[in-house]
Amino acid sequence: MSGDGGTEVEVPRLWADPAGGAHSGLPPGTDEQEAVAGQMLAFAGAALVAVYVLDAGGRALRLAQSSGRLRDRIPLPDLYALSSRSPVADAYCTGHPLWLGPGELASYGETGQRTLPVDISLGALPWRLGCLLVVDDDEGGFDVERRDFLEVYADQVAARLEAHGEPGSVLTAGRPPPPVLPAAPPDALRIGKFSLALRTGRIEADARVLELVDMAPDDFDGRVETLLAHSVPDDLPALMSLMEPGKVTSGSRELEFRVRRITGELRWLQLRCRVVADSSGLPDRVVGVVADAHALRPSADE
Q1: Residue 115 pLDDT > 80, yes or no?
Q2: How many domains, the chain?
Q3: Is the domain of 237 the same as that of 280?
Q4: Across the chain, what does the average pLDDT equal?
Q5: Which residue among 112, 149, 208, 293 is buried most deeply as judged by most CB within 10 Å?
Q6: Residues 51, 91: one domain?
């Protein structure tokens, strides 16, 4: 319930400081502030990444974190009212990702005191708690495969942050709430990516994926079977349904599966992916991300 001045309302506490108390805000330049944005920046290879979260009143999106070399050149708004016309607000309100190149951005008709420059490409990726903004000044912008990767990755980051959110903080009504994000262990945001060519079975996987399945880079030969060999046999059918050309279906998929590490330990991993079609509309590639899911499971044998 709301009130005047110092009336207190209960809202979810989404970020805990190292001492365990409620977060009092995100001062510029701190490592904690850039934890999520910095991870996304490294994954996206973009020039700027920003994270916006819904404020306590539910009427605006507030800037929580930003990172990247364009941060000084593009002073992002601290707040986007949901009633305004902007890529961030529109993506959040519609629930659909929004991708704009320089030409589209120039004619977008953004409202507000500060508008984004029109010589950039951007993506606004909504999630339940807000919106993720990625910006690049590369002439090619964001191609289709890069967009697919970023959308899958944004979904995964959002799911992990929400899974680690903490309820129960108290904010004061009538005062602007601090922009906050859910706390999460560092490994929760260390996410690997892969791209599988369905026709050949060749897979490109980054170092994080290999680390998660406990495989040395020198042992990886680019074959999907080599990676699948590390999974528990009972989980293979579900994994194969994502990998075999005859079983692949369009749209996004997610599942959890177990791998057996060299030590004999069983480990839960989480995979999120989507199918990319070729020019004729047939399934061509599977792009996706893999993350450690052990923190979300009581035991590997569950």
Answers
A1: no
A2: 2
A3: yes
A4: 75
A5: 149
A6: yes
Q: Which two tokens stand for residue 54?
A: 């819904």
DSSP state of 233: G
Looking at residue 286, which CATH number applies to its domain? 3.30.450.20
Determine contact, residues 137/70, Cβ cutoff 8 Å. Answer: yes
* Residue 284, C-beta contacts closer than 8 angstroms, at least 6 positions apart: 197, 198, 199, 275, 276, 277, 278
CB 212 within 8 A of CB 259: yes
Least-confidence region, from 20-24, 72-76, 227-231: 20-24
Phi, psi of 211 (to 5 degrees): -65, -40
Neighbours of 113 (CB within 10 A): 7
The model's pTM: 0.70
Tell whether 2 is covered by a domain.
no
Among residues 152, 184, 216, the one where a domain terminates is 184
pLDDT tens, position by position, 281-296: 888 889 999 988 876 5
Query: Mean of the pLDDT values across residues 114-135?
Result: 85
214-222: long-range contacts (C-beta < 8 A, 24 or more apart)?
A: 214/259, 214/261, 214/262, 214/267
Q: What is the pLDDT of residues 218-276, one digit of tens each?
A: 999 999 999 999 999 999 998 888 776 666 666 678 889 999 988 888 999 999 998 88
For residue 35, being part of any structural domain is answered with yes
Residue 63, domain member (yes or no): yes
Integer Cα distance of 108 and 110 in angstroms: 6
287 in a structural domain: yes
Strands (E), 120-265: 121-127, 130-136, 166-172, 192-197, 203-205, 252-260
Boundary-marking domain end, from 149, 184, 219:
184
Task: Using DSSP, state whether 90 is helix, strand or coil.
Answer: helix
- CA 240, 230, 203: angle at the middle one, nearest 5? 60
